Each structure stands twice: as C-alpha cells, then as structure tokens.
What we know:
Layout: H1 3-37, H2 43-70, E1 74-75, E2 79-80, H3 108-124, H4 142-145, H5 153-171, H6 187-207, H7 214-242, H8 247-261, H9 270-287, H10 290-294, H11 302-320, H12 331-365, H13 373-378, H14 380-385
Antiparallel strand pairs: 1-2
Helix pairs in contact: 1-2, 1-3, 1-6, 2-3, 5-11, 5-12, 6-7, 6-8, 7-8, 7-9, 8-9, 8-11, 9-11, 11-12
Amino acid sequence: MNPTELAAATGDSAWMLVAASLVLLMTPALAFFYSGMTGRAATLNMMMMSFGALGVVAVVYVLWGWSMSYGTRSIACVVADPFECFGLHGTVTDDAGEYLVGANGYANIIDVGFQLTFAVISTAIISGSLAAALFGADAEDEALIEPIDFAGGTVVHISAGTAALVLALVVGKRRGFPGNVSRPSSLPLVMLGAAMLWFGWFGCNGGSAFAADGLAGLAWLNTTVAAAAAMLGWLFCERLRDGRPTSLGAASGVVAGLVAVTPAAGDLVPATAVLLGAIGGVLACLGVGLKYRFGYDDSLDVVGVHLVAGLWGTVGVGFIATDTGLFTGGGVNGLKLLAIQVIIAVVAMLFAGAVTAVIALALAKTVGWRVDAEAEHDGIDLAEHAESARDLGGDRPGTSRGALAAPVESKATVPTVPAVPREVPATGRDERDA
Length: 434
C-alpha cells in the first residue's frame, strides 16, 4: 500500500469508528425518546427495552449475526449460514495474525462494528426481521435501475414499522385506548432523545458512504436539511389540523425526516432532500392518525413515524433521485427505478410482517405478551423492576429505599381517580403512553 492509499485508509478507518460510535449512541437516544412518551409508571421499562436490545443483540451479532448477514453460504436465499463465521471466525485476522482488509480498504473488523450498531438500533425500534431484495439487470442498465437503499431505510424502518403494526394487533389495546390513556411523562426528555437521535444519525447516513469523502458530506447535509424540513412539515400539518404546533410534533417530525432520508441520503441533492423531508413530515403526521381510523394501539407511533416515512423515503427516491429519478431525468429507466423501489418496499413489508406474526403468535401462546391487570394499573416499572423513575412519595413503610416506593398513581398508596376522558380526533394524535 503506497503512502497515499495508507493515508486514505487511515482517515476512512477513523471516520468509520466515529460513525459506528454515533450509530451506537442512537440506541440510548431512542431510550430517552421513547421513555419520555410513556407514562411515568412505565418510563424505566421502556428504557430497559432499548438497553436490553443493546445487550442481547451485540452478543448475538458477534456470535452468529455477522455470519448470517455476510457469510458466503446462503440458506434458502434468505440468510447466510450462522456457523460459517461463528464468533467472527476467519473475520478478524488471517493465519499470520494480520488484520484482514475489508471491501472498503480498511480493517474488516471496523465494518463488523459498524454493522453491529445497525443491528442493535433495528431491534430497538422493533424490527421484526431483516429483508433484502435483489433484482437483476442488463449490464448496460445496472447502474440505472439498481435498487436504492443508501443506509437501510427499507430493511430497518419499513421492517420496524411493519413489525410494530403486527405486534400492536397481536398484543391488543391498552386499557382506556384511545380516549383515556396516560400523558407522556417528560416532553423535554422526548426532545432530548430526538436531538441525540439526530446527532447519531449522521453516523448512520454519513457512515454508509464507507469513506471520509464527498459522498459522506452529501449524506450529512441531506440528512440535516431533510430532518429540518420534516419538522417544519409536521408542525405545519399540526397547525392546520389541530390549531397549534406541539413540541412532541417537532421531535417526531425530526425523526420522521431522518427516517425518510435514510434510503435516499446519497442519491439526492440538498434541494430535493428538503422536498423529500417536508413531504415525509406531513405524511408521517397524518400517518399517526391511522390508528384511530383502524383501531390498532400503536402507542409510540412507530407505524406513523417509521413505516409511513420509511415507505415514502424508499418510494420517493424513485421520483427524485439525482439523474435516475422519474422526475429528474431518468426517463424510462426512472420508471423502472420507481417500480423497483415499490417492489422492495412491498417485499420488506411482507417478509417482516410474516416473520413477526409467526414469532408474536408463538410467544402469545407460550409466555404471553401482557402483564396482569394489577401490574398494568399500578405500572410495569414497579411490577417488573421494583423501582420507579422518580421518587415522588418518599420512603414507604416496609421498604428500604424511596426508589422502591410505588408510584403516586398506584392504587396501593392513594385512591385511584379516573382520568378525564379526552376527545381524540379521528385523524388526530393522543397524548401517548406505552
């Protein structure tokens, strides 16, 4: 390797390690974002779901996840052999002890770490499975009609949103849904989580260039403006529909824009990224109201924010991708690209939905999905973890720590006062809880 190549590989290595760290940050950021939306008696449990994904998936990915994703021996053209590279065998160093160089010119182990962080955040968002669709093309047209998914919008967000929808149908509704559910425990925590997600997303999209180069810079800028435009689009939609913009809407709009631009971040110019983000924000804002129309309880709006925005990002890039989009000079090949983007979105939904349904129904018939009625009333934090996010009542007789005291709303400490029912517009959004 000559000095120029060595310098480039060193710079790329440094950038990819930073990018992997940023993507890893997205999982605790998601814990903040989601837990702030839930009621105060379920805050810790919601955070534990994200941290649990971090613990379990990181170990699983090293043992067999990488092998199932990047091994060379396919099983039914769906996954690779989990035992081919079990425990990263043959992935880190060669027989002489030298670090193996990956396809992008730096040590392969860096790519392993980068992809591990994607697996963690995918699961934390409730990603039922990973789906990939490959479509053949004539050699001369391959560059024009190859499917576009720059940073995992299809396999992460469409799959996560579909899985969330299936789980919402299997698990069922909360007590009191839709008109009488607990308020979000901390809107400032939601906004903090959204800000951290925005920051971490630069590693997701910028890192998907796999080099510290102009493509990474383009993805960075497109990510910034798409999220900003989506936030404005969501707030505009709220203003027209509900009469006022909300902080919850601003945070959700940011995330919707990040989701929408993920499959397209390297295939747009900043002006079209603004358009993609703004439309994504409006569609996601309208999408969260689908649960009232169809009667499923998606308490954290994963369907609206991830599935709707993910579908728009995957399909929308077929219209406006630089030079290849239907409306940006793609011509006949632009139409082919749009058709392929629709197909991979549908395939991802069908695959994730089917796998999630099998797993969800199996668990429903065995260990079950819901806590008992008393735990649901008193709060899952106390029932499952013997602690609460905030010590609101001081020490309780019979306990050694205030953190173990029952939450204020528990029927074990004060009489239960029924919450005041609220009217929920048919296309509006409730004040959410998990």
